[in-house]
Specification:
Helix content is 8%, strand content 56%. It is mainly beta and 110 residues long.
Length: 110
């Protein structure tokens, strides 16, 4: 995924930092950006987390299916940019809270 995925109202976007980790194995790290001032509101810029699917649910809520390379760890993260609230679900647990709390939880998944 190299193209930005813009919210329906154009106020937010998911941008990607893509890099190859092995031949034909790519990491697409997502960044939730507020378009008006280019501030990054949420990112998982560590540990090889890659966005597999990205879907805008409304003007400020995005759903991301994330996988951690190279293992079998995955989770779904839903972010509401308007409220700074998120929730994430893995195979065995879930969390809800602020962007920073959800980010911390996801980065601790093993």
């Amino acid at each position: 995924m190299s193209e930005d995925m813009v919210s329906p109202d154009g106020n937010y976007k998911i941008s990607f930092s893509s890099y190859e980790v092995r031949m034909s194995h790519w990491i697409d790290q997502p960044y939730l950006i507020r378009v008006s001032d280019a501030v990054c509101l949420f990112s998982l810029d560590a540990d090889g987390w890659s966005a597999w699917t990205v879907r805008w649910l409304d003007d400020s809520t995005v759903n991301l299916l994330m996988r951690k390379y190279p293992g079998q760890i995955e989770c779904t993260v839903e972010l509401n940019a308007g409220t700074n609230q998120a929730h994430a679900i893995s195979r065995s647990a879930s969390v809800a809270g602020t962007f920073s709390a959800v980010k911390e939880w996801v980065l601790e998944l093993n």
